[in-house]
Amino acid sequence: DGIETDCSTCDSALVEANLVKQGFGESSDHCFDIDGGGDGTVVNKNLAQVCGDDGFRVFGSGDVTLTSNRSMDAGTNADGDGFDIDGLGQKTLVKNMARGSANNGFDLREGDGDSGVHVAKNELENNSAIDNSNDGFAIQFDTGETTLLNNKAIRNNRNGISLFSNANIVTGNKASNNREGFDFCDEGSSNTLTDNKFGSETTSCTP
Known about the structure:
By secondary structure, the chain is mainly beta. It contains no helices and 25 strands. The relative contact order is 0.11.
């Protein structure tokens, strides 16, 4: 990995103002691999560029906040995401950008063997997903209850925003010009949609 933190027993870790650039064909690692086991981990103003796998992989049982980070061209040697979010703790993402990822821009997913159990009520605000090869935002937690506020999904190769879970709050988001799929798809139930601007919508997330 480029930068790896193992903070399973510590609180208030800070990862700030770092650049990790791996290069095409040089690595299959994540640029930033964050084990947020303790509460209060902050990941701020970092740049992940040309990563072999995920730009930012975040997991663990603690609460983690990611602000103003950028992932550019993640997944050159693997099916990597810009931001791959997993684990028990609440994850808050504000003003981050994922561009050019080989998979999803932002992937809140069901499990990869690290924990397999997830907490609801994650928050994504003012993030941007642009030109990613799959979805811009894929919200895949079983329990749902994620808040998406004022995010943008533009020119992703499949769907702009995909909801596979329930009881999410989706407010003020914009999605346009996403190519093979739809700007917004909702396969969940009891999701609350308010003041969003989507060029196209569907209830099936399979293009």
